[in-house]
Design a protein that fits this description.
Length: 528
């Protein structure tokens, strides 16, 4: 168990937390949510003791061990992979090193023998003899086989380092597990393994993630940061969002009596609680939810951008034909004789183990890169708008404010129209006069969506559109693409986004590309 007592913190002149009192109990996985800048990662650092709070304190149960997913991917570069995982349990690792040092002594004494015996007893009590085996099982589950154990961390790719650090965090059955964006850059198989691991984990987990599918799958509670407070709600992310929206709608409906509102809300809660992530907790959660009153449900200060793409014209039947496309970059063959066709209405997700493959393809399709071989033929009725993974060039050197920046891409030059679109993207009032070179990553992404909205394109190409976004913006772009009547080509690591937007999957690592007319979950059913 871990709890906070009257925690307060002001950072950069902004009050992040004020008198936060909250308890996280064993057997629950808490999804920590909040708008960008609300302080999710900061709160995890407060719990971990990595930064000092200005008021209050954090308490954990006696003898309990906390483990944190490390964010510094270079901290263990000089260590072997297996040793890095074992370092996740600091006490056990210390004993291992002390034992080894004693046994290596050339003048081993009786006193050394006594000390070694004591350490051996502690080692056995901590299941030390199973430690290396457990570590290798965790690594294998995340896709790193036994051949990785002796490799030096510095030699690993970034995505492989993330897997090792994740194995380090969960190694040794910690009592309290803090995970900040654990699914970032994980492949499909590793995500699936982590979901199943957390579903079986019986201790306390607090996780920050922008992956709604992941939050829905593993969370039993949502801890919502809003108004400088943190409030917990039973259920997963969809339960929190839908009940919040329903509660707000009921509040806004002045024609219903309070009793009727509460009755409707409780009926919804009762139906939803049957879909709990962990069936063993369904009964207790049902009892908690049935006690909720209308005033107990969340009302958020969050704002959702409104994203709507309206094609200027309808497409014909022929959208795109790619024939024999090949491309070598820095001496490495990235695209090898790729061929496929897209027809009207296709909303296609492109997958590859290496993101360079999909990004290279999208750059060629957008005309930003030339293929070595092959051809790209767009249908004569199509018009394309491209969302690149790296949007830096669109925002430098910062000589434009947002109004003038968006006006450059819009047929309608009138300021009320431009400002209205910026307002939809949460740039209202003075924010519309921000210079483009001072925008955050999430603000840049919202600007790129506005640019695509004014284009009137009937084909949208999006390479990683959910990167840098909070849950509200991810939900908004998700809904906007579901509504869109044209064609979509996209890449994404967001499971729910992939499942709800795509009606076709093209796996660029496969040799047959034109037969994958299926939903994302169907594709995973074939793969996993």
């Amino acid at each position: 168990m871990i709890s906070t007592h009257s925690i307060s913190l002001t950072f950069g002149g902004q009050k992040l937390f004020e008198d936060v009192n909250i308890k996280f109990t064993p057997g629950n996985c808490y999804g920590l949510i909040g708008a960008n800048g609300a302080g999710k990662s900061t709160f995890l650092k407060l719990l971990a003791g990595e930064i000092d709070m200005q008021k209050g304190h954090v308490a954990i149960g006696p003898g309990e061990r906390m483990s944190v997913l490390k964010q510094d991917h270079f901290a263990y570069d000089d260590h072997p992979v297996l040793e890095t995982v074992l370092m996740g349990n600091e006490a056990l690792y210390r004993i291992m090193k002390e034992k080894d040092a004693i046994y290596m002594k050339p003048d081993f004494s009786d006193a050394d023998g006594m000390q070694a015996a004591e350490l051996e007893a502690e080692f056995a009590e901590m299941d030390g003899w199973e430690a290396e085996s457990e570590a290798q099982i965790l690594l294998a589950g995340l896709g790193l086989d036994a051949s990785y154990s002796a490799r030096i961390m510095q030699a690993l790719k970034g995505s492989e380092k993330i897997k090792v650090l994740l194995a380090q965090a969960i190694f040794g059955n910690p009592d309290i597990l803090l995970l900040d964006e654990p699914t970032n850059h994980l492949d499909i198989q590793a995500k699936d393994w982590l979901e199943h691991f957390l579903l079986k984990f019986t201790n306390t987990v607090i996780v920050v993630s922008h992956d709604r599918h992941f939050l829905n799958k593993v969370c039993t509670q949502i801890a919502d940061i809003d108004y400088g407070k943190i409030t917990t709600y039973a259920g997963n992310y969809d339960f929190w969002r839908q009940s919040s929206e329903l509660a707000q709608n009921l509040r806004n409906n002045q024609n219903k009596k309070a009793e009727e509102k509460a009755k409707d809300l409780k009926a919804f809660i009762a139906r939803f609680s049957a879909n709990a992530s962990k069936s063993k907790q369904a009964t207790s959660r049902q009892k908690q939810l049935e006690k909720l009153e209308l005033g107990d449900m969340p009302v958020s200060t969050r704002k959702y951008p409104y994203i709507h793409f309206e094609p200027a014209r309808e497409t014909g039947k022929d959208i795109l034909t790619v024939a024999g496309l090949s491309k070598t970059i820095a001496g490495k063959l990235v695209l090898d004789n790729i061929s496929f066709t897209l027809g009207k209405g296709d909303k296609t997700i492109f997958l590859a183990n290496n993101e360079v493959v999909t990004t290279t393809l999208f750059k060629i399709l957008a005309g930003e890169l030339e293929a070595d071989k092959g051809s790209v033929t767009w249908g004569i009725t199509t018009s394309q708008s491209y969302f690149p993974k790296d949007n830096t060039k669109y925002f430098e050197p910062g000589k434009y404010n947002l109004i003038d920046w968006l006006r450059r891409y819009s047929n309608d030059q009138h300021e009320p129209y431009i400002r209205g679109l910026l307002g939809q993207m949460l740039f209202s009032g003075e924010d519309a006069f921000k210079k483009t070179n001072v925008l955050s990553g999430g603000e840049r992404v919202r600007c790129m969506f506005a640019k695509m909205m004014v284009s009137g394109a009937n084909v949208l190409m999006l390479d990683g559109p959910t990167n840098h976004l909070d849950l509200e913006s991810i939900t908004a772009i998700n809904d906007g693409l579901v509504r869109f009547k044209g064609n979509i080509l996209f890449t994404s690591h967001d499971h729910e986004f992939n499942q709800t937007v795509a009606n076709r999957v093209i796996d660029l690592d496969a040799r047959v590309l034109d037969q994958n007319f299926m939903r994302y979950d169907e594709y995973l059913g074939l793969e996993l």
